[in-house]
């Protein structure tokens, strides 16, 4: 990698992980991730540490087909943010760029428009450190925890904005340019592009036309993401998102295989059966992989890789990943339907809300703990926690409350929460989704909410994309998406969404009727492990009120598994980076339910 008098940069990755290095006499550029185009642009560096040295500046003859060396020159020498913005908004990919100017010693970081790869950074005087893994910064900046970041993560499952779980450590926002000047010890941060969701550019177009445009963009995204160096493995469930992906790949005449998790504990059998029907309809090679309850070492793996930012309840999926990696190798591309539930449905609140009501909506809809309990456990006031959410809304570019809420769901729920979950996959193999293809995402988010409500736009999109896929039953509503029954149930669902408390009370009935109730009872090991972490790790009791955590554990039956495992993820992360012998290590072979 890069070793100079100013910096030391290194990479820890399996051989197939996509990285590339480009270099000329004046600049050095590192590319992590993939940039897509119709020619399969990722193929130039997929799975290779390709080092290209050239004497010119534009990289035209060196394999630098994206003009990254020229882009680096623009960043450092010209400061032309308009050109940088144009490049970012026109480049479909999931990537991080690191550029080094040899003469001045300046360093620059630039990520994609959606911030698909989580990146963290911090500066202390003349020291600038960044990493794709949060725990790396602990060794440089210590384990001082951000109390509000902890509180937000306990409440919502993720921190907000740039905030992380560590004091002084920031999360790189989407489409950000960071430039560090070692001579002056200064870091300048520029947001080169931000999506604003208060303008629907395609509102004057019919739903049919918008769906047709989306189908074309989706097919292109599937074609671009097809890999030539490994198997495309589509994560297939019975839902609409994954079947859309399979249909898009089939239309583009790619040759994917499909993989489905099977588990009596975590996956409804009806979901597996619908996946079987979908695979048969498209005549695709399909396998199921049995998964069961995780053991302590699975939880430990998730803590050490995602550092408390991904819920431990998802640990069971690691067994699925290991099986398909063993089957196809780490060169596979894991293709998911992630994002389908964000870009095609209506994300606006059911009614217009004031700013205070928006804060209440976020807490009510996404709160894992009651906010008053979070305040007691963390020692922060409830008003301070609410204000931290409100202040994020006030930083958004929109003014319309509906658009503010959409911005929250994309830039907080997706970027800070869901993208962390996707990044968990990349510790095993490359993971991507066509739903976050930049052209598709941009077009879809400019379609009016009136067309998206009650699955209307999605219904038209999927029917245009694949009538066969649209005719297969949607497990959530027990009816094909193209049917009148589905439209009726979607309307009822939309009405209930206007009254979250009513929806929450009848959710168990809905899950039971639709064979979606797969929750298992909590085992004593989980509670015992958390108690030990609180009692044995001083850092845990510094961050949380020991008395309140113990009271919570005493009444855990009143909260449910999601709440318990949320605090478990945080206590495990704190213990892991603060203790020589973390408590979870002694539970490596225990089964967690």
UniProtKB/TrEMBL annotation:
Residues 24-138 form the Glutamine amidotransferase type-2 domain. The keyword S-adenosyl-L-methionine does not apply. Signal peptide: none annotated. Residues 40-64 are annotated as: Disordered. SUPFAM superfamilies: Adenine nucleotide alpha hydrolases-like, N-terminal nucleophile aminohydrolases (Ntn hydrolases). Keywords: Plasmid. It comes from the Archaea. InterPro entries: ASN_synthetase/amidase, GATase_2_dom, Ntn_hydrolases_N, Rossmann-like_a/b/a_fold. This is Glutamine amidotransferase type-2 domain-containing protein. It comes from Natronorubrum daqingense.
């Amino acid at each position: 990698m890069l070793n100079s008098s100013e910096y030391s940069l290194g990479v820890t990755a399996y051989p197939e992980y996509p990285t590339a290095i480009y270099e000329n006499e004046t600049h050095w550029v590192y590319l992590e991730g993939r940039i897509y185009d119709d020619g399969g642009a990722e193929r130039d560096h997929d799975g290779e540490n390709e080092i290209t040295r050239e004497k010119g500046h534009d990289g035209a003859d060196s394999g630098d087909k994206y003009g990254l060396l020229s882009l680096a020159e623009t960043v450092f020498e010209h400061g032309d943010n308009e050109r940088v913005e144009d490049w970012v908004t026109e480049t479909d990919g999931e990537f991080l760029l690191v550029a080094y100017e040899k003469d001045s010693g300046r360093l620059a970081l630039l990520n994609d428009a959606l911030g698909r790869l989580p990146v963290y950074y911090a500066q202390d005087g003349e020291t600038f450190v960044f990493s794709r893994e949060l725990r790396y910064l602990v060794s440089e900046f210590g384990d001082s925890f951000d109390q509000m970041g902890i509180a937000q993560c306990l409440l919502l499952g993720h921190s907000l904005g740039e905030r992380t779980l560590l004091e002084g450590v920031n999360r790189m926002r989407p489409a950000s340019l960071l430039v560090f000047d070692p001579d002056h010890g200064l870091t300048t941060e520029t947001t080169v592009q931000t999506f604003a969701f208060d303008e629907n550019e395609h509102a004057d177009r019919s739903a049919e036309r918008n769906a047709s445009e989306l189908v074309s963009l989706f097919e292109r995204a599937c074609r671009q993401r097809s890999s030539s160096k490994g198997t495309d493995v589509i994560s297939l469930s019975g839902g609409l998102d994954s079947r859309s992906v399979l249909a898009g790949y089939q239309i583009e005449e790619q040759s994917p295989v499909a993989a489905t998790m099977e588990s009596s504990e975590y996956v409804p059998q009806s979901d597996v059966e619908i996946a079987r029907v979908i695979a048969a309809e498209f005549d695709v090679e399909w396998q199921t992989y049995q998964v069961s309850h995780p053991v302590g070492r699975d939880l430990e793996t998730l803590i050490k890789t995602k550092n408390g930012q991904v819920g431990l309840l998802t640990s069971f999926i690691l067994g699925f990943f290991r099986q398909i990696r063993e089957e196809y190798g780490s060169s596979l591309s894991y293709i998911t339907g992630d994002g389908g539930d964000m870009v095609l449905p209506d994300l606006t609140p059911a009614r217009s809300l004031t700013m205070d009501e928006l804060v209440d909506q976020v807490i009510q809809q996404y709160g894992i703990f009651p906010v008053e309990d979070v305040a007691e456990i963390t020692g922060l006031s409830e008003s301070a926690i609410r204000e931290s959410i409100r202040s994020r809304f006030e930083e958004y570019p929109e003014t319309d409350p509906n658009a503010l809420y959409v911005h929250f769901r994309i830039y907080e729920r997706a970027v800070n929460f869901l993208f962390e979950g996707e990044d968990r996959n990349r510790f095993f193999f490359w993971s991507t989704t066509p739903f976050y293809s930049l052209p598709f995402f941009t077009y879809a988010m400019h379609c009016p909410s009136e067309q998206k409500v009650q699955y209307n736009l999605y219904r038209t999109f999927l029917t245009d994309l694949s009538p066969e896929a649209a005719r297969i039953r949607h497990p959530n509503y027990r009816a094909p998406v193209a049917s009148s029954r589905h439209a009726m149930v979607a309307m009822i669902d939309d009405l209930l969404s206007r009254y979250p408390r009513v929806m929450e009370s009848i959710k168990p009935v809905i899950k039971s009727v639709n064979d979606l109730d797969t929750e298992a009872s909590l085992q004593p090991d989980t509670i015992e492990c958390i108690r030990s972490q609180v009692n044995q790790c001083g850092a845990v009791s510094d961050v949380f009120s020991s008395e309140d955590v113990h009271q919570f554990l005493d009444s855990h039956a009143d909260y449910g598994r999601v709440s318990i495992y949320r605090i478990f993820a945080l206590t495990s992360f704190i213990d892991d980076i603060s203790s020589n012998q973390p408590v979870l290590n002694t539970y490596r072979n225990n089964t967690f339910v």
